[in-house]
Write a structure and sequence with these properties.
Layout (H helix, E strand, L loop, with lengths): L18 E4 L12 H28 L4 H24 L4 H16 L5 E3 L2 E4 L20
Helix pairs in contact: 1-3, 2-3
Length: 144
């Protein structure tokens, strides 16, 4: 890609909740036709829906935090997901804390240049090249 091909970058933020959208390029892994495969597909669909609701709230919460607080939260989120990610997928006492840590981790990634695309969603706090929130002519869609 040359500089002439780059999408113009408006100097605008998406607003206090950022932009969180389903990733239009994401293809979920194919589910097998057995009961376990259907359950995994249902889990993934529900996870995307829940993250589409929780991540914007986490972006707004994190907005005024210092870098130090963000770094501490990032490490806690990593530790929680590593220790209790199975509770999130298969059920367990730490399911809620694992889901909250996942939402916070994605929200923290939204503040990075270009945002973050994970698990079938894209989250960012400002328009960027390749952002699903930009229409084909480079104008922001839904900007605050």
């Amino acid at each position: 890609m040359t500089d002439n091909d780059a999408t113009p970058q408006p100097a605008v933020e998406w607003g206090p909740f950022g932009l969180v959208t389903a990733d239009p390029d994401y293809t979920a892994p194919p589910a097998s036709q057995n009961r376990q495969g259907r359950a995994a597909e249902t889990f993934h669909t529900n996870l995307v829906d829940v993250l589409l609701a929780l991540v914007p709230l986490s972006i707004a919460e994190i907005r005024t935090w210092s870098d130090h607080r963000r770094n501490i939260t990032r490490q806690k989120a990593v530790d929680t997901i590593a220790a209790h990610g199975d509770d999130l997928q298969f059920g367990g006492r730490q399911r809620g804390s694992a889901l909250g840590a996942l939402a916070q981790g994605i929200a923290l990634g939204a503040y990075a240049p270009g945002g973050v695309t994970q698990l079938g969603i894209h989250a960012c706090t400002r328009p960027h090249t390749g952002c699903p929130g930009l229409v084909s002519r480079g104008e922001p869609r839904g900007a605050a």
